[in-house]
Amino acid sequence: MSLTLGIRRPRKHRAIDKVAELRDENHRLLAQVVGAGDVITSLERQLADVRAKRAEAEQVVTCLAADLEEMAAENIDLLDRNEALQKQLAPFLAAEANANAITVPPAERDTTAFEDQATEPINVRPLWEAIGPVVRTEGSTDPAHLPTT
């Protein structure tokens, strides 16, 4: 009589279980491959769009650079022409300014009143002349050695 007390031994790793596990993993990996293919296709389309936009932008930059060079040359020509016209116009402007000049006799101030008398000019002298000689006391508080005025 065999005695099995309801204790079952753990199953050994069987080959059938491993095959089923590998099939499940294979299905998961195939789904990932299909998803990755979709992502790659989307990224390739985006790359093609970016390359097309880049080519268009390069063409625009080339056209703008050509326009810039053309306008710079035209600007230099216009500046030269402007300078020549200013030289031609200068004598006419000077003649017109002389013809329409406003001349006023020099003003004379009435200084007969006391308040309007001219003031004495300010005596500006160097500081050492204005205050006299500077004598150092060398820390002495006794003024006996100072010159008297």
Largest sheet: none
Class of secondary structure makeup: mainly alpha
Number of DSSP helical runs = 2
Mean pLDDT: 83
Percentage of residues in DSSP E strands: under 5%
In whole angstroms, the N-to-C terminal distance is 148 Å
Number of strands: 0
**Any low-confidence stretches, pLDDT <50, length ≥5?**
none
Percent of residues in helices comes to 55-70%
Coarse shape: elongated
SSE pattern: HH
What is the CA-based Rg, rounded? 53 Å
Report what the structure shows.
The protein is mainly α and 149 residues long. The chain starts with 14 loop residues before the first helix and ends in an 18-residue tail after the last helix. The protein is built from two helices and no strands.
Topology:
Blueprint: H1 15-99, H2 127-131
Entry keywords:
149 residues; elongated; single chain; mainly alpha
Give a concise summary.
The chain has 149 residues and is mostly helical.
